Amino acid sequence: MCSADVNCLERSRWVERGITYSPVALKPRLALSSCEAELNCSLKKQKDPHDAIMIVRRAIKNDAVVAGGGAIEMELSKFLRDYSRSIAGKEQLLIGAMARALEIIPRQLCDNAGFDATNILNKLRQRHFQGGMWYGVDINNEDIADNFEAFVWEPSVVKINAITAATEAACLILSVDETVKNPKSGGDGPPPGAMGRGRGRPR
């Protein structure tokens, strides 16, 4: 937690949270950082089992499941890419961007595991083109696998809510950006009667 030449004055215990931290003499920033890191780690240990239990609970209440590990995102990405080629307008670019955005999930899984994301994604694209709908990232073997057969499942309602929320957030950002850049909302010059800098006070 700290270097060997730093002496610890006391060790206190937060009984209500079960967190142990050590204030460090002459090193207040180091002590604060150590306490904060230990607090975050302890809270994460409490949150992870709760998240896992809630996922199982939701899977029991909603019996529709999909394969995890980025499998459903890659399948949706393939479907959107194929569909975008049937559109001749600018909407093709939007649908293609949505297809690329869905590939961020398996790419991030590869980055978190220390894999070569480009190699894994190329394998996933090939497998999904061949009809392997449930193939996703295999963390244990640094490869791809049929995650539905490997019992890597996620409730479909969780995926639906996540994609819906992300799409609504993107639409909101685009609408705000369009409003700011709309030339009809205001001109480039100052409003009538406004005085510029250095022109003195109006008489």
Automatic annotation (TrEMBL):
Region Disordered: list its residue ranges: 181-203
> Would you name any one GO CC term?
chaperonin-containing T-complex
Listed A to Z, the keywords are:
ATP-binding, Chaperone, Nucleotide-binding
By its UniProt entry, which Pfam families does this protein fall under?
Cpn60_TCP1 (PF00118)
GO molecular function, a single term? ATP-dependent protein folding chaperone
Q: Which family does it belong to?
A: Belongs to the TCP-1 chaperonin family.
Protein name listed in UniProt: Chaperonin-containing T-complex eta subunit Cct7
Which species is listed as the source?
Answer: Desmophyllum pertusum
Gene assigned in the entry: cct7
